[in-house]
Design a protein that fits this description.
The chain has four helices and ten strands. The chain is of the alpha+beta class. The strands form two sheets. Strands 3, 4, 7, 8, 9 and 10 form a six-stranded antiparallel beta sheet that branches.
Length: 280
């Protein structure tokens, strides 16, 4: 805006200097002509008193030419002003169009991207080779609720099995081993790596002498280029119903129920707000 104002001011200054220069030259020439005419009038009679001299015609023509030139310069400055205004309007329109296109693109990506969330806990019992003991596999479920597949999905699951309840400052560390890598299609679900406990251990959980917590995280990207990594975190406090030391059947209905603790149930920036950075 300052550069445009400076340009208009410079044009006006140049036009003004031209007008002043021409007018000053005209005045000097007119004065010189009148002085010469006066000197000649003393030497011989003036026989052209009623006739306009050629110098006066040229001077008048020069004056009106100067006025016309000034009008043209003024009109040119008005045109420059409107051109600058039109250019600014076009630039604003272009920025608004680009912003609208970016909003539409972001809405398309956000509305159709993969979105992994925790699914129901799966549990399965089996006996050992001798049929003497009951073992249970408790596996967290994962669901892709989005409209596109995941890209580079990795899942990590860990657990806590102790006499005392989980401390308030527990950091929910990832399992030290390698994460499981797979993918989920749109609206597809699967079970993650299981936590294996004996029937006797789950009976202790049911009685309250032991506490079992299971937590995990899923990391993945979208199929769209340039999108950031997403993370979903989940944790369950496990409760047992039925008798886990005996085979599950119609007379012994065993259920594994997970209650969500107040922390480590989040996605993306929510996890950062809870203090879980990208690598935690």
């Amino acid at each position: 805006m300052f550069a445009q104002a400076a340009l208009v001011a410079a044009i006006a200054f140049v036009v003004a200097m031209i007008v002043l220069s021409v007018r000053h030259s005209y005045q000097q020439q007119h004065q010189a002509n009148h002085q010469t005419s006066a000197e000649e009038s003393h030497e011989k009679p003036d026989n052209t008193a009623t006739t306009e001299s050629a110098e006066d015609v040229i001077a008048r023509y020069t004056f009106w030419l100067m006025v016309f030139t000034g009008i043209l310069a003024f009109v040119a400055m008005i045109q420059i002003y409107f051109l600058i205004s039109a250019d600014k309007t076009a630039a604003r329109s272009s920025r608004a169009t680009e912003k609208a296109a970016n909003i539409a693109h972001d809405a398309l990506v956000t509305g159709n991207r993969a979105f992994v969330i925790p699914d129901a806990i799966g549990f399965l019992w089996h006996t050992d080779d001798k049929g003497a003991n009951i073992w249970w596999e408790i596996a967290p479920g994962w669901l892709n609720a989005g409209n596109t597949r995941t890209n580079g999905l990795t899942v990590n699951v860990n657990s806590y099995f102790e006499d005392a309840a989980l401390p308030d400052n527990w950091s929910f560390p990832p399992y030290p081993g390698p994460s499981t890598t797979f993918f989920l299609g749109p609206k597809q679900s699967t079970r993650g790596d299981p936590i294996i406990k004996t029937g006797a251990e789950l009976r202790a959980v049911k009685s309250g002498t032991k506490h079992l917590y299971i937590w995990g995280s899923a990391r993945y990207k979208d199929i769209s280029t340039g999108t950031p990594e997403h993370v979903t975190r989940v944790a369950w406090h496990i409760f047992i119903f039925g008798d886990p030391t005996r085979p599950a059947n119609a007379r012994n209905v065993v259920r594994v129920v997970g209650k969500l603790p107040p922390k480590h149930n989040c996605v993306d920036d929510e996890c950062e707000n809870q203090g879980y950075g990208p690598n935690k």
